[in-house]
Amino acid sequence: MKVPEQIKRLAVVLFVILAAVLLTRYLIPASVVDPRVYRASSAQREVSKEIKFAGATTCSDCHDDINTKKKVGFHKGLSCETCHGPSVKHAEDPSSGKPFAPRERKFCPQCHEYNPSRPTGFPQIIPTIHNPLKPCITCHNPHDPVPPQVPRECSACHAQIERTKALSRHALLECTTCHSTPTRHKQLPRSVKPTKPESREFCAKCHDTGASRKDAPKVDAATHGSRFLCWECHYPHMPGEA
Amino acid sequence: MVYPYLTGLVAGAFILASLVKVFNVEEVRPTYRLSLLTALAFLLIAPLPLQLHLGHPLRSYEIFLTPNPTSAMAMFGFVYLWYLMGVLVLELWFEYRRDLIVWSREERFPMSLVHRALSLFSTDTSDAAVAFDRKAIQVITVIGIPSAFLLHGYVGFIFGSVKANPWWGSVLMPIVFLMSAIVSGIALVMFLYMVLTPLRGEPIDMRCLDKLASYLFYAVIVDFSLEALDFIHRLYQSEESIHILGTLIASKLFMSLLVIQIFLGMLLPVGIMIAVRLFSVTAELRKLFYFTAIILIQLGIFATRWNVVIGGQLFSKSFRGLTTYKMEVVGIEGLITALVLLALPFGVLLVLLKVFPPWRRAAA
Amino acid sequence: MDKREFLKSLVVFIPAGGVIASLAKQAGAKAPEPAYQAKNHYYGMGIEIDKCIGCNRCVEACKLENDVPQEPFFFRTWVERYTIKKDKSVVVQTVGLRKGKAREIVEQEDVLRSFFVPKLCNHCANPPCVQVCPVDATWSTEDGAVLVDKNRCIGCRYCIQACPYGARYLHPKTKTADKCTFCYHRVVRGLLPACVEVCPTQARIFGDLKSQASRLVRFERLNKIHVLKPDLNTQPKVYYAGLDGEVR
């Protein structure tokens, strides 16, 4: 059988294309087409990127004095560069200049300004009320931040609870009526904690029928919701709202 | 954005062309060559918007050198090339080969050489050779239809396989893309046929036009049902993303989706075509109706692509809150570039029509 | 070896040889530390929601360490503030970058609860971004980081779309996809990622899942852990403790 002319023509075209493809395939260096080669080189590029933050352990090599102080204070979890910024240049060559040192009032509120989304218990202030215009470091040493004076009032730290309680029927009760608070709680708020009421009998001292306090609403402690603890239904800082 | 629209037109035009050869639909024969050339013109321009979208257009060759086998996009380059070289160009060559030879013998220097070169210096015009051409075209078309489905269904898959985006991630996406491609392709060929034929002072073949219109009608119905199915399915399943998608449709996409895509681009043209079928209308009026309908359909399909591509990027990945799309007027991805890209295929088509005049059949 | 094969290997060898030589040179320069073996490590990160104070130190440190553009909208890591109102509607804001300027904080009466969620690339074990990259420019390392080769990336943005966490962005200078690397350059030298380094409350924990002594393994043991969008089977390696159900 005769091969049609069209096939011959197309075969030539196909051959030219194939030849070109094969040629380029062999001319292209492996660094372009071989994953093993180009992966290694791009990983290497990634690894050899410049480091800007020296890391916490580097600083204490020289600044041992500050570190000793810092590591027992409330800022013990902070890395130096959290506040002082990237300092690898200074670490490699101390004469090249000092790292950034925040002294302005606007710096600390980045963490310590009151924000309802922040976890409760995290120390927060309202900058417009809290000693306005004074730089924070005039009263607080950032390497060992403690309140300049031990707070007298619970509300200094527990402001939200204080505000809630002030509007409630318990407004006139002292915090210490229910929470006996060791003095050391003011210095070590997390490790020394105030007590909390533990049993139904505590509330019953005022609220049981026949209890001595006249102005408190009364229930029969023996029968009223006997399976539960009082604060499972009544929030003590805002009682009455069951 | 422009890209899926263009490939849609390609696939649609090609499928129309294949109707003639595979299913022997004699009525639409006058548009056979036109639709092949249209498909080629649009296919040649289609990758351009993609190229311009890249951060590094000059690196796009990597898609052929180091394709990632798991990437839906990596295989695109190969599907595209296969369709361009293996299907479209080959079919055109077989279709025009004999004419090219005959033309080149009659013509003078520049054109005769162009035509001779395009025929790959082939000389055989015997009946046996022409019969072989016809056979080859049949075979290519049979391969070509699934290829055209692949090309555009594939574009749909690139979007439909993104699980991160609930607006895109849908099994129906490839089929919806494909059907809307067929719709827009037929509408485009109809448009070109209705514009070019009177320009050459020839009468429009109403039998052909009616047949095209009925294909268009069925395609729109299928496309509409598929899209409706997609919407209803999402609505009924009512997954988490329904809230953000609902907000999206009610606010940012209200105009382009509900008004342009569904009402102007689907319901209105379908209504027009039903009206044309129900009431016997004169040929002149029919032309007018058809013309309005296909313009509306083109507008609608363009809005479809807009809604998919832009709509998919209008909400945040946390499904909370919408983002905004600001269209640039100038710049590499701006409005002007988009308009130029949309106009470019018509320019290419003009050149192709000069080199391969579809209406000039060489005498035997 | 015949002539053709010799020529072929020559063509392959010249550029490849250059790469190997430069590798050797760089490795030699930092010789003192023991050679880093990627196969002995597998990194992940833990995030404790209840400790995050939304101070944005991590975001700023990340930008400095990794040359992320300073403008907002370009982040390798960022912090979201979730506010769930009493009508159960959810508001998400990205914590702003403007230093010093008082952030608008109003104690709204209708807030039910509110908290911060630090986010970053999850370095998924089954990463959709790697799956979709057409040119093989992004990949998972043996030690569990997902990296981008910015010399190969063609800037098609498909990975940016495919990431369910919005962790990737197109770098305006290089015009390539950019994302968190777990500070790969620091980690392989035994340093912590910059965000973990500066976090004042240890809300971020970085560690090696292959080491029983690692802080991350301890974190996983002591907390109830959740990951973002587990239904997508991306298998993230950023683990959250105390994550709220409203977070996506």
Instruction: Give Rg of chain C in angstroms.
Output: 21 Å
How far apart are the first and last residues' alpha carbons of chain B, in Å?
46 Å
Helix proportion of residues of chain B, in percent? over 70%
CATH architecture of the domain at 128-178 in chain C: 2-Layer Sandwich
Which fold does the CATH topology of the domain at 128-178 in chain C refer to? Alpha-Beta Plaits
What share of residues are in beta strands of chain B?
Answer: under 5%
Distance between the termini of chain C: 60 Å
- Calculate Rg of chain B over CA atoms: 22 Å
What general form of chain C does the structure show?
A: globular
Strand order of the largest sheet of chain C: 9-1-11-10
How large is the count of helical segments of chain B?
13
Number of strands of chain C: 11
Which stretches of chain C of 5+ consecutive residues score pLDDT under 50? 1-32, 99-106
Give a quick summary of the entry.
The complex is a heterotrimer of chains A (242), B (364) and C (248). Chain B has helices at residues 2-23, 32-45, 47-53, 62-65, 74-106, 109-118, 127-160, 173-199, 206-237, 242-250, 254-278, 283-309, 335-355. Chain B has 364 residues and is mainly α.
Description:
The complex is a heterotrimer of chains A (242), B (364) and C (248). Chain A has 11 helices and no strands. With 242 residues, chain A is mainly alpha-helical. Chain A has a domain at 150-242. Chain A is elongated and about 120 Å long. With 364 residues, chain B is mainly alpha-helical. Chain B folds into 2 domains: 1-161 and 330-364, no CATH class; 183-325. Helices cover 73% and strands 0% of the residues of chain B. Chain B contains 13 helices and no strands. In chain B, helix 1 (2-23) packs antiparallel against helix 2 and helix 5 runs antiparallel to helix 7. Chain B is globular and about 70 Å long. The termini of chain B are far apart. Chain C has a domain at 128-178: Alpha-Beta Plaits. Chain C is built from 7 helices and 11 strands. In chain C, strand 5 and strand 6 form a beta hairpin. Residues 1-32 and 99-106 of chain C have low confidence and may be disordered. Chains in contact: A-B, A-C, B-C. At the A-C interface, helix 2, helix 3 and helix 8 of A face helix 1, helix 2, strand 2, strand 4 and helix 5 of C.
How are the SSEs ordered, and which strands pair?
The complex is a heterotrimer of chains A (242), B (364) and C (248).
Chain A: H1 5-27, H2 30-33, H3 35-47, H4 56-60, H5 64-70, H6 80-84, H7 88-92, H8 109-112, H9 159-166, H10 175-178, H11 200-207
Chain B: H1 2-23, H2 32-45, H3 47-53, H4 62-65, H5 74-106, H6 109-118, H7 127-160, H8 173-199, H9 206-237, H10 242-250, H11 254-278, H12 283-309, H13 335-355
Helix pairs in contact in B: 1-2, 1-7, 1-8, 2-5, 2-8, 2-13, 5-6, 5-7, 7-8, 8-9, 8-12, 9-11, 11-12
Chain C: H1 3-29, E1 43-48, H2 57-66, E2 77-85, E3 90-94, E4 111-120, H3 128-132, E5 138-140, E6 146-148, H4 158-162, E7 169-170, E8 177-178, H5 184-187, H6 194-198, E9 204-208, H7 215-222, E10 225-226, E11 238-241
Parallel strand pairs in C: 1-11
Antiparallel strand pairs in C: 1-9, 2-3, 2-4, 5-6, 7-8, 10-11
